[in-house]
Design brief:
heterodimer; A: 257 residues; mainly alpha; two-stranded antiparallel ribbon; 10 helices; 2 strands; 77% helix; B: 312 residues; alpha/beta; Rossmann fold; Alpha-Beta Plaits; 2 domains; 6-stranded mixed sheet; 4-stranded antiparallel sheet; 14 strands; 27% strand; globular
Chain lengths: 257, 312
């Protein structure tokens, strides 16, 4: 039986510490948020989109933009909760300094997950801005996508934090990328509709959180209709809570010993 | 549960039978400690004796496998977070935040205690002055010398105006000048009524700073008292160190004669302990041997209690 996390408001000090560092490197940070996903959007959307044509009512670029908003949140949040959090935990002694103050592991894990979710949200917002400027967003309902993106970022970060809890070095994260993140990205409905896959594969990959995030976020951006929003939300929230609870328990065991 | 504040007379730290085991090895093995208000308390022992583990236990960062522990009236580890609001910690390894400048380090660390706003600025100016780091507020951590980093780490621990300051080998790796600066600051803290607990493997440091100390080896407290009491209780007041082979041979002969002389072989030294050195010194002088005559110190106590050197 693992003890549930009991974080306090001091989690916000962890979040704020990371924000303070981010602000110091504002320009490269923002460039990073816009840069790569934007290139994907342009290259695939226009290069590839010509070959694909439209998907039902939807142009391929609009389809792709809503997908890349999800994958950008996924990768930004995961990166932050793995590479950056690991640096603060293992190399920079940042977490040890926090543990000498009245913070506990539960605060640190929640603060880091919230921060990684925030970065995921920022990267998604950057793309949303570009997509809006390109006329790829249907209507004001798109704003509803933002809390869902934030929630998904939380979930992706919490899951990545579980990996960080086990990591002994940076190479370890490649397992997660190769075995989980990349397959989830390719089968999650980001680049093309999941219906292209055989049914057994659709079913198998539907247990992962990304397709549920995409199913929620895409219709909100492109003016489509939500099919099973409660199931989608339940899966995303479930992964988020399970990730946070396990990561907290594992990192407690690692640091409080 | 409401926990009562300790009165002025009550000890700040009370430990009974503390134990910690890693695998088969007991790194802390039945430690009893009591640290009183306003005291400078030392944990003296070689590397690997369990000093750092004991400190981590006091902070609630290592859950004990046995025993009872109260710090600042709070049961530990159950209410370690509450205790840590009133504790300052100087860790053994640098944990300054390399993403920040000197000032940002203090501001950020203060935020972990919930301290922010306009009351904080004068406090931080005060701490920068205390660390002799005025004019370096905007220096990145990587550009500081080892001594500056230590000084910053020390004042960082004071940001919450702690009642208890816990230091893990605060001067290890520092040059003598930097060490003296830290010592001076620690004495000033003690003079203002702050309680301090320090681990060290430098017997000189323990002897100079500590009101009371516990000698620790292999996870146990071997003796606990003031440095002077420890020396008086365990060691003859005079020590003669014989520094070369002929001297050592002569020393062994003198010791074999009995008559209040105790010999101890430590590496390439022979140590003679005695309360009445006069006749011994005359004989060694007459034979022209090289020796060093000095008062007994904590190193001698440690040697006697453990059978091995403190390894400075």
């Amino acid at each position: 039986m693992i003890a549930l996390p009991r974080p306090s408001f001091r989690s916000l000090a962890v979040w704020q510490r990371n924000l303070r560092v981010w602000r110091k490197m504002l320009l490269p940070s923002i460039l990073g948020h816009f840069g790569e996903p934007l290139l994907y959007l342009l290259a695939f959307g226009y290069g590839f989109g010509r070959l694909v044509g439209d998907l039902g009512q939807l142009s391929y670029v609009a389809f792709l933009a809503s997908g890349i908003i999800c994958s950008s949140a996924l990768f930004t949040a995961s990166f932050e909760a793995m590479y950056s959090a690991f640096t603060r935990m293992a190399n920079q002694q940042t977490w040890n300094a926090m543990l000498n103050a009245p913070l506990v592991v539960d605060d640190i894990v929640l603060g880091e997950v919230l921060w990684a979710a925030t970065k995921g949200l920022m990267s998604a917002m950057a793309i949303l801005l570009v997509a809006t400027a390109m006329g790829l967003v249907a209507d004001w309902r798109a704003l509803w996508a933002l809390p869902v993106v934030a929630l998904s970022g939380f979930t992706f970060a919490a899951c990545a934090m579980v990996v960080t809890a086990f990591a002994r070095n940076y190479d370890f994260f490649l397992y997660y990328f190769t075995l989980i993140l990349t397959p989830m990205l390719l089968t999650g409905g980001v680049f093309f509709p999941r219906e292209q896959f055989p049914e057994w594969l659709q079913g198998l990959t539907y247990v992962l959180p990304l397709p549920h995030a995409v199913d929620l976020i895409r219709p909100l951006l492109t003016g489509g209709s939500l099919h099973q929003p409660w199931l989608n939300l339940a899966v995303v929230v479930g992964y988020g809570l399970a990730g946070l609870i396990s990561a907290t328990a594992l990192i407690r065991r690692r640091m409080i010993c | 549960m409401r926990v009562e504040q300790p009165s002025a007379a009550a000890p700040l730290v009370v430990a009974h039978g503390l134990c910690k085991r890693y695998g088969e090895q007991w790194v802390v093995d039945g430690v009893d400690l009591e640290v009183r208000q306003g005291e400078f308390f030392g944990l003296l022992g070689p590397n690997g004796a369990g000093k750092t583990t004991i400190l981590r236990m006091l902070l609630g960062l290592t859950p004990p496998d046995g025993g009872e522990l109260q710090v600042l009236g709070e049961p530990i580890p159950a209410r370690a977070r509450e205790a840590r609001t009133r504790i300052g910690v100087v860790p053994q390894f640098d944990s300054l935040d390399p993403d920040f400048t000197v000032r940002e380090n203090l501001v950020t660390y203060a935020s972990y205690f919930g301290l922010r706003g306009k009351d904080l600025a004068p406090r931080i100016a005060e701490l920068l002055a205390l660390a002799n780091l005025e004019g370096r507020e905007d220096t990145p951590i990587a550009a500081l010398s080892g001594g500056m980093k230590r000084r910053l780490t020390l004042v960082r621990a004071l940001v919450n105006e702690p009642r208890l300051v816990v230091l893990d080998e605060p001067t290890t790796g520092l040059d003598p000048q930097a060490r003296h600066h830290i010592w001076q600051r620690l004495r000033e803290l003690r003079d203002t009524g702050t309680t301090l607990i320090m681990t060290t493997h430098y017997m000189e440091e323990a002897e100079r700073l500590c009101d009371r100390l516990a000698i620790i080896d292999a996870g146990r407290v071997l003796a606990s008292a003031s440095p002077r009491t420890l020396i008086q209780a365990h060691i003859e007041p005079h020590v003669i160190e014989l520094l070369d082979a002929p001297g050592r041979a002569a020393g062994e002969v003198l010791a074999a004669r009995g008559a209040g002389v105790r010999a101890y072989r430590a590496g390439d030294l022979l140590l003679l302990y005695t309360a009445t050195p006069g006749a011994l010194l005359e004989e060694l002088d007459a034979a022209g041997h090289r020796y060093l005559h000095r008062p007994a110190n904590l190193e001698d106590v440690f040697l006697k209690l453990t059978g091995h050197e403190l390894r400075d």
